[in-house]
Fold these 2 entries.
Entry 1:
Amino acid sequence: MSAMLKKITEAVSFIKSCYSSSAEIGIVLGSGLGNFVEEMTVEKEIYYTEIPHFPVSTVEGHSGRLIFGQIGQKRIVVMAGRLHFYEGHDATEVAFPVRVMKLLGVHTLLISNAAGGVNASFAVGDLMIITDHISLATVNPLIGKNEDAFGLRFPDMSEPYSKTLIKKGKAIAAQMGYPVKEGIYFGVTGPTFETRAEYKMINVLGGDAVGMSTVQEVIVAVHAGIKVFGVSVITDLGIREEDNIITHEEVLQAAAAAEPKLTALFKELVKAI
Ligand code: HPA
């Protein structure tokens, strides 16, 4: 057994010793998007700091616990507070919780993030269903010895975001009367927001939104055969004519304002899976 698999197994054993049910759907909540837990019947909360080998989040706005429970008949595990590469975790550590989820029984991952819009038709507060991503400006979490227990050395990435889930997500948003955008998420390391030239470049390269998370977790999920649905909340606009100063406070504020829509979409999608 690899050192990594041993760590994951130990983390999973600890979780199972505190909470005996499995989970089928994993949910990762981005900056300022943590209220989803109000919608679920919570059965158990475990702080990352309690779990052996679990990397601990340090960012403001991320509380750092796994929350187990149910929505309807679905068993879910929510990662309230995620880990970012810019905090100093390596790419494999960032995705560690996804592998823990896999061994807990998770087959579908719903993932959200706050992102900067670079598509000229986007506005602050828009929800963007992620149809694809560009991960080349970040470090690939599968670099290193392949973890054969999870997946292949050279995994296919032609459909990182499940077409079936995108269709379901769009149908649910339409039913609820929420306009949603669709687009490509461009992953960066952060922690700096982009320069004006970088936002422009990201747009030219095909990105619709840019953010500091998600791509590493999604790569590890797809490697492990987990289906993914992702949504970006557009919290700022990267390409504007006037001075474009972006602050973390602005991002959190915009995320909080859009949060009820995201929460409703995720809740209905969980029920529909
Ligand atoms: N750039 C990168 N990450 C982000 C942004 C942004 O503009 N907004 C929220 N997260």
Entry 2:
Amino acid sequence: MSLLQIAEPNQSAKPHEHKYALGIDLGTTRSMVAVVRSGKAALLETADAKTKDNLLPSVVYYGTANDTNAPIVGSEALSYFETDPVNTIISAKRFMGRSVKDIKFSHPYQLKSSETSADAMPSFVTGQGNVSPVEVSADILRTLKDRAQRALPDDSIQGAVITVPAYFDEAQRQATKDAAQLAGLKVLRLLNEPTAAAVAYGLDRAAGSSDEAQQERLFLIYDLGGGTFDVSLLKMNEGVFEVLATGGNSALGGDDMDRQIMGWLLKQANLNPKDLTAQQRTHIARQAEGFKQALTHRDRVDVSIDIADIEWSGTLTAVDLIQIVEPITRRTLATCEQVMRDAGVSIEQLDEIILVGGSTRMPVVQQAVEQFFNKTPLSHLNPDEVVALGAAQVADQLIKKDKSNNVLLLDVTPLSLGLETMGGLVEVVIPRNTPIPVAKKQTFTTYQDGQTGMVVHVVQGERDTVEHCRSLGRFELYGIPPMKAGLARIEVTFDIDANGQLSVSAFEATSGVKSDIKITPSYGLSDEQQEQLLRAGFENAAQDKLSRSLIEAKVEAEREVLALQSALQEFGALLSDTEVTDLQQAMSALSDSLNQVSSSLNAEPEQLQQLKADVEAKQAVLKPLSDTFAARIMDQSVKQSLAGTSTESW
Ligand code: ADP
Ligand code: MG
């Protein structure tokens, strides 16, 4: 008889075996994986034969130029970009969780809309078939996972922490998780990139070691990558990180510098960009990137252009570069200023500035930041790697369940989340900037007698009316027992988990009917749109207040008309014919005014005031008539109940 190997559940049969968790920075331009070994976080060798560095270009080639007919990932894929751009997917991250109507930036790809929903992500049409952005990300993640598996002992990887920009919405986060799942990676947590950078610099612990420990500390994370600029304000208080505010520009980064440098080169060489083919421009832009990177370590670099019968060579100096990229650094700093102003934070209040992203290695960027903030930014860790290093530390804490240094990495909701209520109004359930994870419950009721179903429509945004907010999804709750309007008690719960993912459930309390459906978020919301929604909320506050009061008056009046209609059916005989006619006339006059309200909700304030006055006037006419009617009904029911009492008592 053989012996069974016995181990406690959840415990390894080999107690001394090491367990690892990966920290993955899934970047727009480059991706990488880090892990904590012997207490120290470091990037894993991704053994890229060509670049010999540990950063994996976030590029996948799906063409047929090679014979393998399988996707090629990384720097080898990048080499196809000039010759076969349509099949070389770069910056897939920008397409994650976006619908066709969200994709406003230019790109060389042919997109195919989803057949199931207009809100779903489109696919790239490639030589190897249609591939969704999620699949592209999955191919990148799979490559990183394979390399990590080769570098670490067999079966030792417990999962991964994957970083996402702080402004990523539900759809974008879900798409990222889907990609990880497709790549066979267990996601321990999605982590905001700026928070990861702060962890890498040990800012979660630094405060705990001194007397100032209990004080709040503020950090600004300046992340200038290849195609995007992100700025985040983090607050650290008693071991808890909170994202106070985020901002940025999804079309500003190192690529723009390359284009500016290209413009400078063409001007020097007396070339008109219009005379060049797209391929030639791509070629020069890539050359420009090389010159730019060389200037990070040198004061001057020899430059040359050799295309279209024209040969030109010259010198590009660090001083030229300051001039060339000045418009870009200026815009990043203006964004920083805006974010601080929104959050009510001044430069003097900032405890640290952290530089993240490949472009912050440039001395010109470092100097501009230092000058603006009047403070030397933290940059001693490699700005390319900090996000992955921080993610690896959090991943390690999560698998060790390290209680001694259990950083609660709090984030906040970027936009308010709420429900549609009668009249197209938004009832906010979780306000903007609420720390997550969070769960909130709110009770709603039915509007009509005998109503047995209800649509729960979840929206995101700062405006008071649904049409000005973004629809996240809707579901239905059925099986509410028929009751008088207002008696049902429907509890709707909004739950946002630590990854920033939202689920909404509804429950009717008197009957116990439940519908804990998870909402499928409609895909897409760019940071510009998010910014727009936010700004719209501030700019339209007064107008919103007016339309809200008008809509509230309208909903109330409609409820009155409905109640009167059902009363007329039941008790109409209590009124004379003229009384019925008068009542019906007053009701239809009010209904007419109400219809007008519905079609003019976007009118000018004066007109809204006028509409409201009109509704109130019609209500004033109706009131005495409906009061008389109500009194009759009362009389009758009192008589009936008296009659009832008498029969019973006799
Ligand atoms: P992302 O987060 O968008 O993936 P990265 O943080 O990897 O981007 O940054 C990529 C950008 O950094 C590219 O524009 C690249 O040219 C630039 N970059 C990388 N190294 C250097 C360097 N040594 N000097 C200047 N720019 C650099
Ligand atoms: Mg990045």
